[in-house]
């Protein structure tokens, strides 16, 4: 091949010194931005374009040639054109034979085409080694150099050597390549930049459902009921009073739902007597979005804190306070201090403060950069020990808030209990079951199961090969 | 020395096994710290020094030799001495020929010398391959191993192979090399550690200016006016009341200024009919510091929240409340509940809480480790969709706070409107223009322009090569 | 499909194209998870097991062979079995000769065995090259792919080439290898995942001690004293009032203790006239846990803020307020505004708000991902300049809070001063000494010492080789 001889000649006097030329097909935004960055990192760059006059926006150290000429100059060709224009590449099949073609394209919709763009490219030019890369990086991020969004570049391809070459370029640009395996992974990689918080979908939908339910529940109890029976217009409760009932209730339920799947998994493992059979799918998915559930719960807890702290500034509350004092003043009365009330009020506030602070701490440790700096044991300590402590404190906060109102008939309007009473169901179940699981008669077999022991072992020698890292 | 001969013998049968010797010129803090770290990572280290007696602080596995002897033992020589002492290296030019010299030095001032230290070194020893590296790492960070500050090591140099060797050492030390291109980049790399938050300068100066303006503005309205007309001493307003007027006003203006450049850019692109011509420089710079502007705005919003929440604890406020109740009690009056006021008060508080919570969420997503874990689409969703929602909520918060006071003559003292009225100008302009831009007659051409379409195309075939990643 | 047949042909002559086979001994959780991940990243995987029937949980692309057969297929063998089962490896010594053995094991306790597992393995199979790696990664993290915990993989080993091979595998899996040196480091690496926040132990124990002391101190002053002398039951103060005395006091003392070691170090350096002699061990340890001390202080400050902001919601406080107004109403009196009190109250609140906000900012900048993105100068600016400003603001907050109560005899019950008076001792000492150290007569020699100057120099030429990066 004359390409090789050309390369060898060009490189002979100075082989080690130079990075290999990279060719870019397409002079659009992304091609230009990538070319600019490559030149900065020491790669000679040639652009392949239909129009070989150098446009003004092309980086000035780059050459612009015809596709054929450009392709001959480099072993790696970055295909920075849209999928619908790929077809012309078939005419270049001969020149592209043996070359590394880097597919950087994205689609507009998830699973827009039956096969991924990279696989389509590999079918069009069967002699080339296709590598998928760079599709998660934006032209703007490359140009501005700020790279606020991710530095991760997913790379996949069938040819190891080609993939290695592309990964070296990625590293040279200051980005982090992540090998995702063979070209089959391209579909997933192409879908990645089109995703919009997939792990957050379930937690957010669930919390929206809970918010809607408790909104109408509280509306009936707190606005419609007094309007019907006392003809009082408390519609302004919609702004703060009702949200401040919804937020703590939703936060507590979501927090309990973070710990419920762990408890369910323990029961399943105990029942099955092994950890080597898969959990049901819904449980697996639930366990994978526990972090997101917890963070949504934290957001509601945060809102609850703010809504609570503005209470004394509210016009209605100030009016109520001054009215109460005035009515006492008119009767020439003074109130004695009710120590029980003082205890209850201070306790539930204190429990709430401690619970929220621990919850906030849990939120901080789930920041990627913090969790990257703790080891596995520390991570589990924070997320399970401190997590349960948070759940206990928040449940206790709600119980003490209820205080002696649980049995008072005035708490039930139209037979509807207060919203916070409903919110206690899930956390109490989780805490009771967890408490039962701590008893040695259940904890011991569970620990053994998690270390690999099986009640009805399938492979007798497996217990020899336990690694002391239990799942979860 | 018999220790040396032993080493050589031990190494003979298994050369591939060993990392290559690294030589360090200079036994100062940084040289010693780097030597220590290199030895830890398996590199044999020799120090070159005028004084060849091993000082007590040199790592014990390292040899100390004369400069000549040390240089002969290694292919890579780290020049850990100050620039003003570089001149003696000319006498070693012959031995240093073909070696990789790593310049680790920093200056005391930005652009202290006409050329960078690394370029000066390359001039002094023209036969050597000079690489700039390690200048952003501190001796203390290397020694303590904590590396709280950055793990990034900027590397530049004209010789690819030499740069690669240095980058491998950087990686072996557990640091992240970032290739910055040729030795021309050394100037910038040397200036980097001398920078003090360059991106923050404009946002901070701007906000200080705004703070100063609104401080005097509020001082006149809230302290001097009542002193002149009512002889009341409200000087203590300087501590909380006035800051709590300044903070929300500055926060809202800065938040609007985050979104103003995007709107301006859209207008410019629509007017020009293309996205392929550069924005004016001031707009480019403004767009690059939007994140910092937003975070400064968040800081003021945070202060506003704290200042607002302490209101009921303030001695003055408690006095005012009790005085108001007492005057009603003396007149034997009670106040009826003003539902409109309750609605207004609760609404602006609720809007403020929601706005601040969303703003806080935006702040969290701008943490590097969080933004690294979202894809480009998610990043844009958070920063633009949620960002505009934040701006709308905060503007509405201010509008409702104003309520029916906008037209009340008591809001104007010496013809000066309330500060919050002034703060509404910029956000309202941004929101109105953004609202206009959403109309299909403007949104459609804008989308097409951002996808590469041009009203008066310069290169007719460019539209074929659009990559579906639009800027911003 | 002709694409497939072409591919097979294309791959035949080009073996370099393939990643090398990796062998895994042990089919436990960790072995299987690692095997799965390796296959994903393109490595052919064979498992060595006593039972060569493929168990259902083994990744389907992997082979399961006898230990002998499996070992022969690969140059790298990952020993994913527990230490107590290592002994059978001696029988395979011949086959394992020259192979790279990767020890991934962990123990149950710190320093459980006299030598590390990796060193024990190296003794058992002296002909093999043992590398320690992967022990910080959990099976669950590998399987789920979320890798919430650390991506860092500590690697150590005596053979450079073997270590390099393992580090390449680590990188291919998308993890970050950190070379920790020779196999001697294995002990430390094996202890790492068993650690539970070692740097936090001292700060947390210290703060618990302070909390206990100030709890009983406040209990005596605020609950027992009024009970004894006035027969009042203020036991409910335990929930909020007493914690809200403890938190600010502990936060201020801990914050001052963050800056005390720096001041002590300066005094020691000035006294010794050199920076080249080691600090006492306790001072070194103290300096290394300053960040943790500061963050614990921030947590207490955060609690203090929440405890303070709920004050107006407390049942007791509302009772006290209404009682005070009622008693005035009964006497038909009104209170005039006390401007001094208004000034004092607003000032200490404002100082507290500013101090806490700055403190919060310091906390944010100590997040790993934030501190990774600032240069050394910026890091020092934030941590020392802004840190001292925080200390000054918080000390001033406490001083103004005390106000004119310092000399009032009612502040002393049973000769015990208020807790906040005790908390002022350490910060005032730190600030006074720091203020003295700023005077030029002390600052100049200190700066020179920190740049390497010595009062009684040991090596006369060292001053030539100062690098302008001073420690701390």
Runs of chain A in which pLDDT lies below 50 for 5 or more consecutive residues are: 1-17, 459-472
> What percentage of amino acids of chain A are in beta strands?
5-15%
CATH topology of the largest domain in chain A: Four Helix Bundle (Hemerythrin (Met), subunit A)
The structural domain count of chain A equals 2
CATH architecture call of the largest domain in chain A: Up-down Bundle
CATH class of the largest domain in chain A: Mainly Alpha
Distance between the termini of chain A: 56 Å
Main pleated-sheet profile of chain A: 8 strands, mixed
Tell me how many strands of chain A there are: 8
Most extensive interface between two protein chains, with residue counts? A-C, 79 and 92 residues
What general outline of chain A do the C-alpha atoms trace?
A: elongated
Order of strands, main sheet of chain A, comes to 3-2-1-4-5-6-7-8
**Compute the gyration radius of chain A: what is it?**
32 Å
Count of helices of chain A? 19
Oligomeric state of this protein:
homotrimer
Pfam families (chains A, B, C): F420_oxidored, Ferric_reduct
Transmembrane segments (chains A, B, C): 202-220, 249-271, 292-313, 347-365, 386-407, 419-442
InterPro entries (chains A, B, C): Fe3_Rdtase_TM_dom (IPR013130), NAD(P)-bd_dom_sf (IPR036291), P5C_Rdtase_cat_N (IPR028939), STEAP_metalloreductase (IPR051267)
Domain Ferric oxidoreductase (chains A, B, C): 249-394
